[in-house]
Specification:
alpha+beta, 6-stranded mixed β-sheet, 36 strands, 16% strand
């Protein structure tokens, strides 16, 4: 029974550990870079319009051309007019009018000119007149040559003489000259392909002649005749169909009246098969209008448009599709109908041609869908004709079926498949109110597949439709449209101009203000509005007044992404927009953002820092007054105090970017601080600031632009003493005159060239006092500059490289400025010395004003009492950033990247690690339980692993579930596989200075059956930094590969400084960590008297618990457990204190004992339940005691016998082990009984172990790891002897 209870408890604990994972968010696993959306050029370079149409009809009714022998009966109808039913003159006029009406259905606003049976002169005048009126727009030339001979092989078509007695040739070369470009030509005649081919040759000839005639002259570009479009009825040596059931101009009928022609051809092809009782006469009786989709004829036209668009989309290259089907409405209609002509005329042995050439589409599968739609419509046509209802027909299921096909494509996945062919149909469905919601929903699902899907949708031409839908008032469409627009703008931000031009931004303002909308959709609206205002002055101007109050309301929303994007939207709105900044100032927007600096979500905190940074940089020098400067400096102090040691590198990077604007604005003041700092640092470091030699320093301090004359180490001492003190609360007044009085005191000092400071130590130490910013204090301003400079120096030493690199770039910028200023100062000093009687120890500016910028002569009229740096571009220009991040662009990945596959879909491969991994979870736990139960009958001295570590071990830690041992020396970490005696990984911890690793933790331990992708190692150093490494437990498939130098080392996931109390100069135990996986909490202590509790999910400190120790004592041992509220600490004076984290900080110490009299080595809670009351502790004298939280005294387990250097406790097995400098390891039971000692290594003539430096037990198995000063690591298990 006991056994089953224990296994159940341990299994439950493991399940709980597996249920929580930290630091697995995208900000840790991805590079913070802008996504590569690669927006395609879906926008048309230029929209064109066909404004003029020339209808040239050469029919010569009733005379047939001499080279064509017509059959009887023969096709007669031209433009659906029978020319033999009326006199010839009226017939050709009627045909021309009918053809014009057919064209007007597709382009009603064009200018139409008819030329009936023309001469060469008629064609010339017509073409030149149309080109002159069209200017740069397109002109269409329609040629019907049914009454003249076929075109010649010389590239000539035929017209008439004035008396109609001769056929006169008209060269296409001449026609090109008259028509100009751009133009479109339609040839409805036999042998049309000959003209199409020769047209291109003539175009090249025109260009060649232009080049010869305009060589060396700056003339307009040559005519682009080769870009003209041509449509021909048939190929070379082909004649037009003569079937009497067809019109004579079947090609023109397909281009201008496609529905009539398609229905007629369908009836001819299916006569007597499926539809009975339908004659060709019924074609003209189909009711309705082409433009009314509710009617039968309109629905057929709608379906036909969708099908031909789909065929073209799936067969043409994207750029050609854009040119032919999206650039010009008339051209698009003609080419849709040209696809029908290909299908119909090929059935009569004619091959229509075009330039640019199109692939054959007459057998595309979508034509079957068209035939089905025709059959459904024609099947109900007789009943429709008998009905009096205006809309009696049953609507075709075509669009519903195509949406279903699109949904099937989405459901079946998209990897390694062609894009869905239904996209153009979805575009057409958006026109229908009935199917629109479903179409938008499916379209949104498609856009989630990634940027390629967005580019595909935009290139198909959906943008004008979704832009027009923003005028809709339907509430049910709001979530769908907001989602679509968020995806579109994330991939192609240029669409924001269209939203501003069409007032579409108002739609998203309504969504953002609608509290009944889900927070996710309001987040998308905030993102869309943020894109609209970013780097877009017009967008900022029109949106500003309504947007900022809305965003300020949303920054307190419970939904973190909404808080983040509302904040980013604010920052983008007032970026380089002074009017928006002043409006925000009236609403105290910056103060409302201060609360977000403590937000539990790092992305929200980073967004707040970003927005405060753009708030500071949103004014030019000329627009910045005293009030603005006061606010800017308050923001700087608030950021420095609250963000410098934020747990997220994301936030700290944004801090560097925000502070750079303050540094640039007050550059001359910061140069003074930086100059002194570099002078102090140069003698101790490499001479990277070469102008600051002793001679240069001596001369520069006598310069009129010298910085405050501190002694060599005074500024450094000031930094170290006050780097973590609070300067002022955000609401305090900063005054209006930085540096004036301070510079007065400095320059009036009689010891300008010496090392004596002009300002007293008391004054410097008062910088961190609460009254520092009360009133206009000259010293307070210098304290501000020193504080911000120290913040920048701290960030330059940040444990996370990306943060340190950004800060280093800003500091390097100032270093270069200092070099330049000192060179100029030396020149100026030489000039001043040559002038007799010049007082070198007094300032050359009026008291109460700021000193001029270093090395610059400032005329009196240009002096500024505000001491603001004016950049090189001038006062009206905004500051150019020295460093930038891509945090905001990276944040938009949420709206760009494809949706992730669920965890069930992700294949997992078993880890090739240990024999434990091959067992089931329950059998493994039973084995561990049995192993712990045998502790009383077996000694713990079986040497199962021994290996030499790369460095002397300082800290040991076992993996919580597997026999993997993490070993840390001073600067590096090694992981050993104990069972296979194999090194898993080794890496350098990237310590700064002389800091050393002092503690370890394993985060997100995974069970053996799961690859440890997200299992991390955290290292704590005695400089107060924590680094988290990823990939430390990833093993190679073979031991040889894992030991090779090519094995990829772990990567730094994150790093932060959880405490600033640890001082490496007074090093003792360093930083101590206690990790609680279940709640993601890291308890921090060591070398201080304060316990800090960090929420690793939020990456911020959630509590500071004072321990109440004396000022000369520090925490030397620390332990906590996730199952209970207790934190046990041991101190350097022997005190043991128990803290309850649930209580207020003033009452958190619930128990303390003083029975130990020396340094506490180890403290440990014996059990892992919430009712834990037993604590075991050990001190360096060798004494070990067992405590009960409920009792006031303890029980001595081990009396002092030898100096203890290390101690470890096995909470589940109730064991503890001690190590000493006497080269002995003692193993004891928690009750006090002695188990065994370890003095020698195993083997014949085994050597004595070296002095013990560290010990560690495996949490579940009975394994003891010992590290000794000779760099050996030994692991002991239960002896089976």
């Amino acid at each position: 029974m006991v056994e089953s209870i224990e296994v159940s408890r341990i299994t439950g604990s493991e399940d709980e550990e597996e249920s929580v994972a930290v630091l697995t968010e995208a900000r840790h696993l991805e590079n913070i870079t802008a996504p590569n959306t690669a927006a395609h050029s879906w926008r048309l370079k230029e929209r064109m319009k066909t404004v003029s149409v020339a209808l040239v009809l050469c029919l010569n009714i009733p005379v047939d051309p001499p080279d064509i022998v017509k059959i009887q009966p023969c096709a007669r109808h031209e433009a659906w007019i029978d020319p033999h039913s009326m006199p010839p003159a009226k017939a050709i006029e009627a045909i021309g009018n009918s053809l014009q009406k057919a064209y007007e259905r597709w382009q009603p606003r064009a200018r139409y000119k008819k030329s009936l049976d023309p001469t060469v002169e008629d064609v010339t005048k017509l073409c030149m007149s149309l080109r002159r009126n069209a200017k740069e727009e397109r002109v269409l030339f329609h040629y019907n040559g049914h009454g003249v001979p076929k075109p010649t092989t010389n590239g000539e078509i035929w017209v008439f003489n004035k008396s109609y007695t001769q056929y006169i040739p008209l060269s296409i070369y001449e026609l090109q000259t008259w028509m100009g470009a751009p133009s479109i030509y339609v040839y409805d005649c036999s042998n049309a392909a000959v003209i199409v081919k020769l047209f291109e040759q003539f175009a090249e000839q025109h260009e060649e002649e232009w080049r010869k005639g305009n060589s060396g002259n700056s003339s307009p570009p040559p005519p682009s005749f080769r870009q003209c479009i041509q449509l021909g009825a048939c190929g070379a040596k082909e004649i037009l169909p003569m079937n009497p059931d067809l019109p004579a101009d079947v090609f023109t009928a397909c281009l201008t009246t496609p529905i009539n022609m398609a229905v007629r051809w369908y009836l001819l092809q299916n006569k007597g098969k499926l539809l009975h009782g339908l004659s060709l006469d019924i074609v003209d009786k189909i009711p309705g209008q082409l433009s009314d989709r509710r009617t039968l004829l309109g629905e057929l036209n709608w379906i036909f448009t969708a099908i031909t668009d789909t065929i073209a989309w799936n067969t043409l290259p994207r750029d050609l599709f854009q040119k032919l089907f999206r650039q010009d409405l008339l051209v698009a209609s003609l080419f849709r109908n040209f696809l029908l002509a290909q299908r119909i005329m090929r059935s009569y042995d004619c091959t229509p041609v075009s330039s640019p050439s199109l692939p054959t589409t007459h057998q595309h599968p979508m034509w079957d869908a068209w035939d089905l739609a025709l059959e459904v419509c024609l099947g109900q046509l007789p009943g429709v004709l008998r009905s009096d209802d205006p809309y009696p027909h049953v609507h075709s299921p075509f669009f519903e079926e195509q949406l279903t096909a699109f949904q099937v494509w989405l459901d079946l996945g998209h990897q390694h498949r062609l894009p869905p062919e239904q996209l153009p149909i979805v575009l057409q469905v958006l026109l229908s109110q009935v199917h629109r919601p479903r179409a938008l929903e499916l379209l949104g699902s498609f856009l989630t597949l990634g940027p390629w899907a967005v580019n595909l949708v935009l290139s198909v031409g959906i943008f004008p439709y979704v832009l027009r839908l923003l005028q809709s008032t339907a509430r049910e469409l709001r979530p769908l449209l907001v989602f679509l627009w968020a995806k579109i703008l994330a991939v192609d931000p240029s669409c924001k101009k269209d939203l501003v031009r069409e007032n579409g931004y108002k739609y998203f303002l309504q969504v953002l203000s609608d509290t009944s909308m889900p927070a996710e959709h309001r987040t998308m609206a905030a993102f869309v509005l943020g894109v609209i205002v970013w780097e877009h002055p017009e967008g900022q101007r029109v949106v500003q007044g309504s947007l900022m109050p809305l965003c300020l309301e949303q920054v307190t929303d419970p939904h973190p992404p909404l808080r983040q994007w509302a904040t980013l939207c604010l920052g983008r709105t007032w970026h380089k927009h002074p009017d928006a900044r002043w409006a925000a100032t009236r609403d105290n927007a910056h103060e409302k953002l201060y609360t977000l600096l403590e937000d539990p979500v790092p992305e929200v905190r980073a967004a707040a820092v970003f927005s405060l940074g753009t708030y500071v940089s949103s004014l030019t020098s000329r627009e910045r007054n005293d009030h603005a400067r006061s606010i800017d400096q308050t923001i700087a102090v608030t950021l420095a105090n609250n963000v410098t040691h934020d747990g997220s590198p994301l936030v700290r990077q944004e801090l560097v970017v925000a502070l750079q604007y303050l540094i640039q604005m007050y550059e001359s003041s910061f140069l003074g601080v930086a100059r002194q700092y570099f002078r102090d640092e140069t003698p101790h470091h490499s001479n990277d600031l070469s102008p600051l030699s002793p001679q240069a320093s001596s001369s520069s301090t006598d310069s009129i632009t010298s910085p405050p004359p501190y002694s060599t180490s005074s500024l450094t001492r000031y930094f170290s003493r006050h780097s973590n003190k609070q300067l002022a609360s955000p609401g305090q007044n900063l005054g209006s005159s930085p540096d004036s009085s301070f510079n007065e005191k400095v320059h009036m000092s009689p010891t300008m060239g010496g090392v004596k400071r002009a300002v007293s130590t008391h004054s410097l130490s008062s910088i961190g006092s609460s009254g520092m910013f009360s009133g206009v204090s000259s010293l307070s301003y210098h304290g501000l500059y020193c504080k911000l400079w120290q913040t920048l120096v701290t960030l330059e030493q940040d444990p996370f490289p990306a943060v340190a690199n950004l800060a280093a770039q800003v500091i390097d910028h100032l270093r270069n400025k200092v070099r330049m200023s000192i060179s100029k100062d030396n020149t100026e000093h030489t000039r001043v010395e040559s002038a007799p009687g010049t007082p070198v120890n007094r300032p050359m500016f009026i008291v109460g004003e700021s000193p001029p910028s270093h090395g610059e002569a400032t005329p009196p009229r240009a002096r500024s009492r505000n001491h603001i740096n004016h950049n090189e571009e001038g006062e009206n220009n905004f500051l150019k950033p020295l460093v930038t991040t891509e945090f905001v662009e990276w944040s938009a990945k949420t709206f760009i990247l494809p949706r992730q596959r669920s965890g069930d879909d992700t294949p997992t491969t078993p880890s090739p690690r240990h024999t434990f991994a091959d067992r089931s979870s329950n059998s493994r736990l039973l084995a561990e339980s049995e192993e712990r139960r045998s502790v009383g009958t077996h000694k713990l001295d079986d040497q199962v692993f021994v290996h030499r570590n790369p460095g002397p071990p300082a800290v040991l830690l076992f993996h919580p579930t597997e026999p993997l041992l993490t070993v840390a020396d001073k600067t590096s970490v090694t992981i050993w596989d104990v069972e296979h005696s194999q090194r898993v990984s080794h890496w350098n911890n990237n310590n700064t200075g002389s800091s050393c690793i002092s503690s370890l933790a394993v985060l997100n331990p995974s069970p053996p059956s799961v690859p440890p992708t997200n299992t991390y190692v955290a290292t704590g150093c005695d400089d107060g930094t924590v680094r988290v490494w990823r990939g430390a437990f990833l093993l190679s498939t073979s031991p040889r590969e894992s030991l090779s130098s090519d094995h990829e080392p772990p990567t730094l996931l994150t790093a932060f400084q959880p405490t600033t109390d640890v001082n490496p100069a007074t090093r003792s135990v360093g930083l101590l960590m206690s990790w609680e996986q279940e709640n993601g909490t890291l308890v921090i202590g060591g070398d201080s008297r304060t316990i800090r509790i960090w929420d690793i999910h939020a990456e911020r400190c959630t509590a500071e618990l004072p321990t109440g120790g004396d000022s000369n004592t520090v925490i030397t041992a620390l332990h906590s457990h996730q199952a209970g509220p207790w934190i046990v600490t041991g101190f350097s004076d022997g005190y043991i204190r128990v803290l309850d984290r649930r209580l207020p900080s003033s009452r958190c110490v619930v128990r303390q004992w003083r029975e130990h009299t020396s340094w506490v080595i180890n403290t440990h809670l014996l059990n892992s339940s919430q009712a834990t009351t037993k604590i075991i502790t050990g001190v360096d004298s060798g004494e070990v005691r067992l405590w009960d939280v409920r009792q006031a005294s303890s029980e001595q387990v081990c009396a002092p016998s030898h100096e203890m250097t290390a101690m470890a406790t096995h909470a589940n097995a109730h064991l503890f082990a001690t190590g000493s400098v006497n080269q002995v390891i003692g193993v004891h039971h928690a009750s006090g009984s002695f188990i065994n000692t370890i003095k020698y290594h195993e083997g014949f003539m085994g050597a004595r172990i070296a002095p013990v430096s560290c010990l560690a037990f495996h949490p579940r198995r009975v394994l003891l790891a010992a590290g000794t000063t000779d760099s050996y690591i030994t692991v002991y298990g239960l002896s089976r002897r």
